[in-house]
TrEMBL record:
NCBIfam families from the UniProt entry: aminoacetone oxidase family FAD-binding enzyme
Protein name according to UniProt: Flavoprotein, HI0933 family
Record key words, sorted: FAD, Flavoprotein
Top-level taxonomy: Bacteria, Pseudomonadati, Bacteroidota, Bacteroidia, Marinilabiliales
Record bears the keyword Nucleotide-binding: no
Amino acid sequence: MAAQKNGMGHNNLNNKYDLIVVGAGPAGLIAAGRAASQGARVLLVEKMKSAGRKLLITGKGRCNVSNDAYQSAFFKNIFPNGKYLKPAFGAFFSKDIVNLLTQEGVETTVERGGRIFPTSNSALEVLNALMSWVKKQRVELSCNSRVIELLVQQGQITGIITERNGQKEPLEAKGVVLCTGGKSYPATGSTGEGYLLAQQLGHSLVQTRPALVPLITSGSLAAQLQGLSLKNVSASLWINNKKVKDEFGEMLFAHYGLTGPIILTLSRQAVDGLLQKNKVKISIDLKPALDENKLDARLIRDLDANGKKQLENIFKGWLPSKLIPVFLEQLQLDGKKQGHQVTGKERRQIMLLMKNFEFEVTDNRGYSEAIITAGGINTSEIDGKTMQSKLVKNLYFAGEILDLDANTGGYNLQIAYSTAWLAANAFIKLNIENHTTK
């Protein structure tokens, strides 16, 4: 290998590589490091001024590295077709990324729901470990470098053209892996440019849209509850008055609407419902442990036991204090009314609102707040056993650029590592091993 001593930087490039990896996020780092570890001369090109910027904000800066669930659980959490990833997960799975990080000095901890985090709770530690590993493999890294064209001759990749400080530069390569991400969090560099590069070569795009994204609701109800976090509640998604999905856990009210883990999980289908011009609602069950009859019996008991107390004070045993004035207003009840004055009809309305606290969804917060992009390069045009394009030889894809996205829980990052590792392996097998054995 004729790579630089330090393995990083962009000085004195001789413009000829075995493999060029575009995008230095999690997928790009894994693809570049893996290919270089197998003897390829690798250049990793990144348009931002440093690598892994989006990785730093994953898991609220803690980096949910992966999940220790079985593959079958991964498949259930990945859309539109988790099983497409069988070969990728077979090549590199959650235990493999944990082992790689352990080798680089990162301890990990398994938390609720199988989520794997660095014990330090630092995404920066994870990024530094991946960068250190990539450096050891003698990958060359070129930052502030935008890929403006993929070069193809006779249906085969021959290199790329980059633009750096206004200068265009052609670089030769036997293969290219596109790891440019989607459109979510564009401030970190993912602005969908990889889609255009692939489309120029004939690849088709499944409509992209924000996923794992906060939802905007009509009216001022959410704004009145801004900052209130609810735990152990159930939220259900209704499209055209039909319940399509529900989730149990934690959510949060914001000035614009609803967010938090269970809302983000429901958002994928909510966004699609809105795109199809359907009526979309979220219903919150504040007392999911009790059915209507049991909840009604509890209300009767509490109202009887506190007959002389004011209703607004009785409510404190039922709901967080921020919800009480909103409930009284919604139900048009006088908070000063005493418990024994509450009619059977009013009690039933209280019970029904606790079980079905409704919000009409009108929009989403867009790519700038979406954790992931749904849609992407159509996987029917990419060989799932190699991640190689079926249209252009030695063009590979990995990570969020693909039409694959998942629920929260570390699944999306694992898609990135696994597809990247598989792509690197396939490139090596086709281009390096065959040549070295001849």
